[in-house]
Structures are given as C-alpha cells and as structure tokens.
Amino acid sequence: MFWIILLVLVLLAMYVIMIYNGLVTLRAQVKNAWSQIDVQLKRRYDLIPNLVEAVKGYMGYEQETLQKVIQARAEAMKASSMATRAEKEGMLTEALKSLFALTENYPDLKANQNVLQLQEELTSTENKVAFSRQFYNDSVMSYNIKCETFPSNIIAGIFNFLKEEFFQAAEGDRAVPKVSLR
Asked: Tell me: the pLDDT tens digits for 60-80?
C-alpha cells in the first residue's frame, strides 16, 4: 500500500513538473516574440530619421509634418506598456502616412533614389513588424490558453503565471498604410 501511494505521489509530482515546464516554455516564447517585435520597431525607428533627412530639403514648407513624424517616433520609443505602445505605434503610422501623402506633391522627391530605397526598407520593415506581431499574438494565445485550462490553470495559479496582453492595433492603425512614392 505504501508503494502504491508513493508511486501515485511521484507520478503526480512528475505531472506537475511537466505542466510547470510547459508554462515556463510558453512564457519564454512570449518574451522572445516580444523581443522580435522590439527589434523590428527599433529598425523602424532607425529608418525614420534617415527618411526625414532625405525629404527635408525638398519639403521646405512641410516642416509641421516632419515635426509630427519626429515627435510620434519619440513618443513611440518611450512607450512602456503594451497598450500604450500599440497606441503610439498607431500615431507614428498615421504621421508616416501623412508624410508619404505629401511626397506626392514633389516630383523630384519621388524620383530621388535615396528616398526610394528608404521607402523600400520601411515597407520591408513594416511587413516584418506585422509578422512579428502575429507571432507574438499567437504565442500569447498559446500561453494564455495553457494558463486558463484545467489542470494547468491550478499550477499557473500556484506559481503565479499571469495572463499576457495581446498586441492590438490602435483604432486608427487598422488599415494597411500605403507607402508609395511613385
């Protein structure tokens, strides 16, 4: 009888360890996914000053738009929480849309190879950000499901595994930005 109870306790302990390790793995995947978003956003932040410098000479009368882009970039870089970051990223996307819309009025700017190359890099980065956000949200979904389903929810509660927040687009950021200088 003692051996049966001991065996049941050992099997139960092994099961708890498996669930715990699964939660740790999923939490690490969520953190990795967030770091991938962060890497792409930093790349985006690095491209924006180059773009502003490239168009500054052509758009002498559009300094307000350039300032909005610079300010939106600075605010996005300072955002700390997921919700704030999504909101500030939406504002930055809107400011970039305004900038690209104004470039249509400058034929010399549309033909500038440096601006075209920056536009191409920015478009590529925007795609990478979108893929990174999707991977992050998929990781959060898997982790949150594991935290909420029985019996792993008991282990999650005991070891303080908290649900993660999804990265959601801001209300104005729901449309895909059109970035075209041609």
From this structure: 667 788 888 889 999 988 888
Could you give all domains of the chain from N- to C-terminal order, each with its CATH number? 2-173 (1.20.1440.20)
Q: Is 154 helix (H, G, I), strand (E, B) or coil?
A: helix
Task: Give the 3-state DSSP-derived string for 38-101, with helices as H, strands as E and coil as C.
Answer: HHHHHHHHHHHHHHHHHHHCCCCCCHHHHHHHHHHHHHHHHCCCHHHHHHHHHHHHHHHHHHHH
What is the DSSP-derived secondary structure letter of residue 180? -
Helix (H) or strand (E) holding 79: none
How far apart are the C-alpha atoms of 148 and 136, rounded to whole Å? 18
* pTM exceeds 0.70: yes
164 neighbors 30 (Cβ within 8 angstroms): yes
Contact 54, 77 (CB under 8 A): no
